[in-house]
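Standup notes
- DV: blocked on the single-chain target, sequence here:
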Amino acid sequence: MKTQINDLKDCKKEVLIEISAEEFNPFFEKVLKGSKENLAVNGFRKGQVPDSLAQNYLDENKIIEYAGEEAVKHFYWKFIAENKLEIIGPPEISVIKLAKGNPLEFKAAFWVLPDVKLPDYKEIAKGIKKQEVKIEDKEVEDTINWIQRSRSQTSPKDGKIEKGDFVEISYNSPSINEGKEMVEDFVIGQSHLLPDFENELLGLQKNQEKEFKITFPKDYINKEIAGKEISFKAKVIKIESVSMPEINDEFAKTIGKFDNLEHLRKEIKSGIIKEKEQVERQRIQGLVLDEIAKKTDCDIPQILIDVEKEQAAKDLQARIPEMLKMSFEDYLKQAKLDQKGFEESLIPSIKDKIKKSLILKELKKLEDISATDAEIAEESNKFLSQFKTENEANEAIDPDHLQEYTRERIENTKALEFLENLTQKNDNNTNNS
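- DV (later): unblocked, structure below
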């Protein structure tokens, strides 16, 4: 096998491969043998047709074509393995010369992962300091109050809506969601709706309707209605009184295995501390990676950008209606974008994501960070445990894909923890109450 490799732009390479007639012949003979074994001619059993007769029924050009396909695959992957190339996506292959008794020539263009030269990441990490994790009594009490509300009970109410009542309403506005009717249920004073909207409902009774206008904040997330006065029409469907349990030792015992209210408070505090510590760890890991990325130059293959852009656009397009309470088409109008412009707007964050992925890949190589088979099996089994049967799991995800995904996730976690452990610890990093 003779090869000649050329560097193209955008992390792309092209190799010209020539296979001698002697190297190609075994592939031709293999396909020819298989064709003979599957040949059926009247008067002979399948596979028992004499060679002198078989050649009259076999299409030699087809045999050469199939043999060429097999040879191209074999020698392409042999070249990749021998040169230890990390390729991305399928190759673009074109056959130049293919004939019996002659060398086989073909070209293969393919993308490779770029070379990534990292800065002094250890020194960068050492220059970053963790923040002190603090917790205040109010956070614990807010959590207890949230639990109290979650244990509340409701009962039908015949009077007017008051603050603290649970209500169900239907409402619409010509300026929102194309004027379609929406239904919400919530506790007055505890919903995601604007306070001015809730205040308009106070004093209404069941089945009563009301038309009103409210002015939205100038910084409201939906820029189409931010700072504007919007008309609404609402109808009360249901009103219920809300009664909440008293916060005491007995209340604590109903929540779980707690001896008393103080025991509950201590466990809540411990849980909040762990959550904050995890958030701080993630912040530090992200900050270190950001700083390393700023000082790392590497090419981003277009093929990776295209794949990520397609998936990111699809995911975001599906989430926008729920996130922003508007259709994707309305979002594009508000943002003054078309579909292409929307996808292009995602590219900076996509490039950043790919770059950090390449940095972690290189870091894992330099620091010999890997996941053990036991770790992969444990994490994979945790994921698979959510399925009732093995068949259900196999239909949801390919086992090999799950193994590779789990391996990468574990190794990335270890790499980020490695960077985190290089950062400075705050000597005053104590948990205050």
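- Follow-up: The domain at 2-112 is CATH 3.30.70.1050 (Alpha-Beta Plaits).
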